Structures are given as C-alpha cells and as structure tokens.
Amino acid sequence: MKWITRERPKIDRIACPWLIRRFIDLEAEIIFVPDSQVKSRAEALQAIPFDIPGVEFTHYENQCTFDYFLKKYDLNDPALHIMAPIIRGADTDDHSVASQAAGLWAISAGMAFMIRDDYELLEKGMLIYDSLYSWATYLPQVKHVQSPAEHVLLQIYRTYLDQKGERKTKAPAWTTELRDLIQNHIDTNLNLSLKAVSEDLNINPTYLSREFSRYFDDLSFGEYIRKLRIEKAVQLLESSQNSLSEIAYITGFSDQSHFTRIFRQHMGQSPSEFRKDLAKRKANSKK
C-alpha cells in the first residue's frame, strides 16, 4: 500500500510511517511530495494521504495524526500509548504534555537540519522510533539518577522552588519566531492568516489558535493583529503627514471606513479626532 504526505518530515510525518510499517502495513511505501501536490499525487498514485488538512488521517483538536492512527486501527499496545503524548507534545510544541517531548523535538529538528534527503531522514528516523518504542516497552520507569541521596536532594530542591514560586512557565520556542513573523508582516503591510502562520511554523492551527492568547497579551490572533495595526497607525498619526486613507492602507485595513471603526473601538475616538487632539496638545506645549 502507498502512503503519501508532505515533504521535509520532522515528528508526525516520521512517527506515522514508523507506526504504519511496524504495526499496520509492513510493506508500506512512503512517498514525500510538496504540500501543494499531496492530494493530486495521492489520487494519481492511489496512495493514502496523511498529516495534511482535509484528509482522514490528520490532526483532530489537540490530537496529532499519530493519535488518529492508534484510534483508527485500534492499536492497544501500552508502549504505543506511552509514546503518543511524547510525539504529540513534540509535534505541537506543547512540551508540558510529556517531559520527553522537548528532547524528541530537538533530536528531530536537528536530524532534519542535518539530513536533506527525506527518504534518508525516514530511514534514520525509524531507528529513533524503534528506540523510543523499546524504552516505552521496557524502561519507562527507569530513572537516569540512580543515587537515592541525589534523588532526594533533587526533590527537596524542586519543592523549595515550588514554595518560593520561582518555577515559571516558559513560553514555547515558537512564540519568539511568531512575534518576528507577525512584526515582519505588519511592517510590510502583508495580510497574515492563522493558517499561513501555522504552516510557516509547522504547528497545528487548532493548537496555535488555542494557545495563542496565553503568550500574546490574552488576545486572540485576530485581536492581537488589530492591536499592532492600531499601534502602528498611532505612530503614523503622530509622526507623519499621511492622509487617513494612506494610513489605512499602510496599516493593512481594507479601507478608511474599516480603519476608522477599528481605531475608534481601540482608542475611544476616530483617527481624525485623535490627530486634532494631538495638534492641540502640540500647540499648547509651545505656549
């Protein structure tokens, strides 16, 4: 049987082929093609597409494609269900799901950076997931810290940090990349959608939509983008002689009417009223 997915695999698109070949279809042929060609090539090759939006084998809510394979084929091996949250956490960049998720992501990203051929990447990745499966089968309770005294000291240290409130939730790595991506689009007046951002970051859009407000001022994606556009509009109103229609265009609003309505919602007055008040304040300051 042929299975087809997007090129440049990292987590789910290596974990799923490993699962297919080890538990579902031992002779499976895995095919990697550009994102835009997956569905057309799947039809032409009579292959089953996976880990892309709009097909059966894909992400559902906070579950990744690996989770769906387990459910679809009723795979009840306990080791696979130990692996599942690790793969999910690495694939969605939510390392709170499993402590091992960050390590799997780091190894997978490094391997993808080092190996440019997708099929060689899959071959090497099979060993990674064979190893993870062996650990999940035989060693999940084994700790690297073997000394009882050392273990107790670590527990005391962690408890002390908890009591002091010094353990803080660290923002995922994708938030920094996302801030830069958003700012670049704001600066160049390009439209930016949640779907496009999730593709650029290789993050599930449902997860990104759900987690966005935690790290971006308690605002949704759309609210945050509008906030940045208004802030840029304020800067232009204060420092330029551009007309309101020009500022509306520069800041990415569909027209001056749309710009005025959103500006009023955020600032409590229209852009023209804001500019008049600004001129009055400047005049008064010179007296």
TrEMBL record:
Q: Which GO terms describe its molecular function?
A: DNA-binding transcription factor activity; sequence-specific DNA binding
Q: Does the keyword ATP-binding apply?
A: no
Region feature Disordered, mapped onto this chain: 268-287
* Transmembrane feature ranges: none
From what superkingdom does this record's organism come? Bacteria
Pfam families on file: ChrB_C, HTH_18
The alphabetized UniProt keywords are: DNA-binding, Transcription, Transcription regulation
Q: Which residues form the HTH araC/xylS-type domain?
A: 176-277
Annotated Basic residues bias: 278-287
* InterPro entries from the UniProt entry: ChrB_C (IPR018634), Homeodomain-like_sf (IPR009057), HTH_AraC (IPR018060), HTH_AraC-typ_CS (IPR018062), Tscrpt_reg_AraC-type_HTH (IPR020449)
The entry's protein name is: Helix-turn-helix domain-containing protein
